[in-house]
Amino acid sequence: MDLKVIKDKFVTLFGENYRIYTSPGRVNLIGEHTDYNGGYVFPGAIDKGIYAAIQPNGTNSVRAYSIDYQSYVEFEMREDDRPEEPWARYIFGVVREIQKRGFEPKGFDTVFAGDVPLGAGMSSSAALESTFAFALNDMYDLGIDKFELARIGQSTEHHYCGVMCGIMDQFASIFGKKGHLMRLNCATMEFEYFPFDPKGYKVVLLDTVVKHELASSAYNKRRASCENACNHIKHKHNEINYLSDASYNLLEEIKDEISEEDFMRAKYVIGEKQRVLDVCEALEKGDYETVGDRMYGTHYGMSKEYEVSCDELDFLNDIAKECGVTGSRVMGGGFGGCTINLVKEELYDKFIETAKDKFNKRFGHEPKVYDVVISDGARRIS
Ligand code: GLA
User: Fold this and answer.
1) Do 186 and 58 meet the contact criterion of CB atoms below 8 Å apart?
2) Per-residue DSSP letters for 62-85?
3) Strand order in the sheet with 180-185
């Protein structure tokens, strides 16, 4: 990311003094749609993020410029000052969520830009929320802990952006560590860093560049299905707090009480829990075949049971299989975006070439290719 563009614009609009903060997007090796079900996720922060120059301005207003949207917005910080522009809602939401927790950040000026591809399932919105949550906490010395910073981003999605997301993306953006994935138990928020350096393999994202319109309402609908299934199980077994705590047997017990659709959603979630645990165990042994096998398992589940895949993603998954790629699956919320692929180094060039060629013939454009570099989380850089 070329910070000069951000710095120059800040100087032109607001003056010479500023600090720069950044927070990254994320990948997730496995554990999808498990976070809001109290299950495990296994993300890592990436080398693409949001970068913001920011400085208190001594007023009660926020003055913000987005380089990517070439758009300037000014807003005060009370609930009814909510800006219209979708990008500004994230910043407003973060400010409001900080205030709701009893802190009083003052107004500030900011110019920001990012290099996380939008709508590609790499959490550009979490990167934006985390950048501002981290920056305001640091700049005004608020003393908010890192878990709460992640929750501030998540609540921003819930209350200002209409997505009832889990905690994975904001957690990964805040806690990321270079060279490490993190296995997070979303029920207890306990997590461990796992060094991730699969010798002889590459991790690559293939971006379909498809983003489905109804992604956020479909996401919320999946969440509602899971909650419904969980409530029915809880009714019979009150020791179950989250759907991820349940077994296939418990799900079978309530099969007749819920719709076929909700049953399939719940079945996927319960299966996904075991896949994450299998992957962690396999990683510790350097058994990448098992890691890859479970990734394909997740793709199947997300496509056929959770139904958050699409033709383009399924097509890329099939190509990966044909090319002998070790593991491949749709990453993130789904409904478009990327596949994440674990591929042997010697197969890499052939795979990328084949995927580009076949995808282009079928859909009229090539997928974008991003090599994954696992990087640090939110921080001040100057
Ligand atoms: C989106 C959400 C996350 C998570 C994933 C699916 O990225 O923001 O909380 O639910 O989808 O795993």
Assistant:
1) no
2) EEEEETTTTEEEEEESSGGG--SS
3) 40-41, 180-185, 190-195
- Catalytic positions: 169
Q: Distance between CA atoms of 183 and 194, rounded to whole angstroms?
A: 7
CA distance 105 to 91: 12
Strands (E), the chain: 19-28, 40-41, 43-56, 61-66, 71-76, 108-114, 180-185, 190-195, 201-211, 327-330, 336-344, 368-371, 379-380
Segment 266-314, tens digit of pLDDT: 999 999 999 999 999 999 999 999 999 999 999 999 999 999 999 999 9
Three-state SS for 225?
helix
Q: Which atom of ligand 1 is nearest to the CA of 166?
A: 9
Expressed in angstroms and rounded, the spacing between residue 310 Cα and the centre of ligand 1 is 17
Task: Using the mean position of ligand 1's atoms as its centre, give its distance from the Cα of residue 333 in Å.
Answer: 5
Place of tokens 């976070």: 35
Q: State the pLDDT at residue 5.
A: 98
Which amino acid is present at 49? G
CA distance 332 to 30: 9
74: which strand partners?
63
Question: Do 178 and 375 touch, CB atoms closer than 8 A?
Answer: yes
The CB density around residue 349, as the number of other CB atoms within 10 Å, is: 10
pLDDT digits (tens, 9 = 90+) for 81-91: 999 999 999 99
Classify residue 200 as exposed, middle or buried by CB count within 10 Å of its CB (0-12, 13-18, 19+).
exposed
Report residue 196 as tokens.
């991730």
C-alpha 277, offset from chain centre: 20
